[in-house]
Structure formats: C-alpha cells, structure tokens
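In this supplementary section we document a worked example of the pipeline. Step one takes a protein sequence of length 533 as its only input; no multiple sequence alignment statistics are reported here. Step two produces a three-dimensional model, which step three serialises into structure tokens for compact storage. The input and output of this example are shown verbatim.
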Amino acid sequence: MAYNPDWDAQTGNLPKGVPTPYETLGYTILRWCETYIVQPDGENAGQPWKFTPEQKRYILWAYSIDKNGRWRYQKVSLRRSKGWGKTPLLAALAIIEFIGPCRFGGWAEDGTPIAVPVQLPLVQIAAVSLEQTANTRDMIRGMLSESPAEEIYNLEIGKERIQFRDGKPGRIEPVASSSRGLEGARPTFVICDETHHWIVSNGGIYVYETLQRNVDKTMRAGSRLMQTTNAFNPNEDSVAQRTYDSFMAGTGKLLYDCREGQPVEDLNDRDAVYAALKEAYGDSYWAPIEGLVDLATDPLTPNAVFWRFYLNQIAESADNWINKYDWEDVLSLDDPIMPGDQIAIGFDGSLRSDSTAIVGARLRDGKLFLIHLQEKPDHDDDWQVNTFLVDKAMRQAVETYKVEWICVDPSYWQNLVGIWALDFKERDRDGRDIVFEFPPQQRKKMVAAVERFHTAVVLAQEICHDGNSDLTRHIINTVTYEVPQGLLITKENPNSKKKIDAAMAAVLAYEARGLAIEDGRMKVRRKARMRTY
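The serialised model returned by step three reads:
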C-alpha cells in the first residue's frame, strides 16, 4: 500500500504525519487485512474489510519500528468515544497477529522492512470477566467466517477459540481474572479492551499486571499489549487512568492515541455539541451524530456520562453525583427550621484531614440544614478537629430540636459516639437508643443510602434545603465511583482539597430521618421506603 499524503493530518496525540514505508510494518498489515478478512455486518457484510484513514494512521504508528527492527512503542493505547470503532479495529489486529505478517523479518533490497507471521501465536482477548470479551470475539468470528483467510489458513472458528484445524500450535482465546492459568502463559499479543472498567475492586489491575508480566517474557520477540478505552473516571484509578498518567509523565515507550471533542459546558447548545461530536468521532462515518446530539439533553444521560463516553473528555469526566442545577431545584427558603422541630441528624467526622460535619433533616419535609462544620485549612498540616466544639454542637442540637434519630460514621470517633449513645438515651422520652452507627465499610448499605438520597433529590424531589453555601459546596464537590454493589460517593481524587464530608453527613441525616419515620416517630404524607439493616 503506497504512502498517502492525505494521512498527514494531525489527529489526537499521535506524532505528526505518518511513518514512511521504511519505518513501519503497517503498510503490509493494511494490505493483508484488506485482502484476507471481511466486513462482518451491515450493508457491506462479506465485502473485503476496509479501515478508515484514521484507523490506518493508528496502525502505521502502532507497528512502527526503529533501525534495528524493534518496536518503536512497546505499549499502545487507543482512547476514543463510544462507537468510534475500537473493537473492530482490535479484532482485525488480533487476526493479523494470529495468522498474518506482523513481525519484523529483516530488510528487503529496497530498504523496506519484511513482515513475517508469528511462529507460535497465542493471542489473548482480555477483560475483567469472560462475558466482556464477547463483543470482540463475535467481531473476530464475523471477520473470519467465509473469508479468504478461513480456508487459506485452515481455521477452526469456535465459539470461544479460533485455532487451526490440523492441530498446528496457536490460537485466539479469551482470558479474565477468573481464567485458570492466567499467570505463567506466554502470549504473543494481548487485547485489553475497555480498560476504563479495569479497577482494583473487580480485579482489573491484577489482570493487567499479570498480562504485562506475561508478555514481558517474550518482549524481544515482539510480544506486547494493546488497550482501548473511553475517557476514564479520574476517581477510580483504573488501568486506563494509570496509562494516561504514564503518558503524561513521559515514561516508557508508550503510544497514546486520543481524540477529544472540544469542551462543551452547556449541553443544551446543540450547535456546540454537534461540532464537538464531529471532532471526537473524526472519520467514523457510521457514528449517529444527530442522535447523539439528542442524547446530550436526555434526562437519563448524566452530563458526566456524555462528556466521558461521547466527547471522550477526561477533564470533565469526574462523575458528579448531584449537579448544582438539580440541587438548586430543591432549594426552599420558606418555612425555616425552628427550635422544637422534629429532626434527624447525620454525622461524618475526621480528625486531622478533610472536615467534620453535622447535618440535620427535618422529619416532616426532609429539609436539610448544616448544624456544624470544621474544615482543614489549606497548607496547615498541624491542624486537627476540635472535638470539644463537635461535642458541644451535637449537644446543643439535641437541646434545641426534638432529635428522633442520629446516624453516625463512627470511624475515629468511637469513644465520643459511645458517650452520645448513653447520654441521649437517657434524654429520650421513651428511653430509646437513638444513635445508630453506620460504618461506610458496609458497602451494600451505603450504596443503598446514596441511591435513596440521590433519588430523593434528582427524581422525586422529596428533599429540600435552606441554601447553606457550605452544604451546597460539599454536595457539588461529590463524585461517584463504582463498586461491585453499585455507586458510592467520594472526592474527585484522593488529593483533592474539595471537601465532601457535609454531603456524607446529609446522606446519613436522610437515612436517620427514614429510620425515625419507620419507627413511627413522625407521620408524613408520602409513604416511606422500608429500610432493612
């Protein structure tokens, strides 16, 4: 395939232009793929496979070599919007790595590199679960079924594996964290798809580190990983995020190909959204741009999801839990909190970092208000919470209001929480234990509490607040992160100076309100959800 000057347009983070035919195996690979594999679906199903110019440019750089025939890039990462065509691209490369010419085999007389097949190919499609490899495996089978390659290379196209009919060594196989023998294999090429989902809690970090060690064993023979990802959640410390951080630090022989749409703050601006989508999707002519413009304002699509998955933006991709507009919608300046009101209380505390907050929730309408807040000042490493003031604020609240229930995160505060439990039980008119410990380590319960609060604000509008600026700031600072049980809330990153403790205290206050209602302490017009603890 001849060098084409039309490919010189700068896109994403790739080097300018494209390597010449003397500097890459990519031209041979492009010719081979478009000869031996087919389009798996759509109106061109069964026709020879065709790459877009953008995909060609990626391949030319991914398979570029130095003067010794070694890979210029030992690690390769492709970050693109959802639906750009990442999975078909890597499926095609899995096939070439299995049976096609994709390793340096010397120099031709004209000075161009000779590409040869891998001798003992073991191509692995990796994910955190085997189910997540299904799309790539289906794409590979579709590209090979009834293709020239199927008969010429005598392939057996199975549901799980692709191998040779005559028993010749070599295969394409799926692997995941549960796969037996993951440690110790000697893969020649590994596809790591959707690495923004590869996090500690689902075993993704373990899978990646194991696969990297495996390919390192035969690195000199050309073995390596290629990964694809959408823009990651910067709160999850995923493989995709670690790869990006490595690229930004300039470490290692890493090719990082990324194309983002221009930032769009107002997703109701259809023209701006359209332009940003066109930029993000490049020459992916199949992308439904008009439909995606409509999706930008769909209430079921959070802004953060649209920014990350469709505009491919990391800077805007922290998953805000409750945005300022939804929070403003439940502002209520009427009917202020008064002494003697029946309330529930939430407490979230720290000792030497972050902040400590006490939040109240009125039983009859769910109105939230900030009772006490202490925040660590910036650049004061010797600061610590004044526990006397915390205790004083809690006791004053119990004196001022009819406190029916208190939910607390007991971490670091077990002694004071124990004292509160004893003292407030004596004060309660029925002698009840009104202090309930709610450890955040109980993830199933915390996920349910976070979801109830979010639903009450964003969908049902069963919560209101008095407009306190500190509580508002903490709510807006909060982002979500995924655990196996669902979504939890946290800071945008571990080193962020943006505080969120009042938001957590608000969640606990709303839980305490629910417990009080279930306990029959207050009758409300709306039927409360049953909570099981």
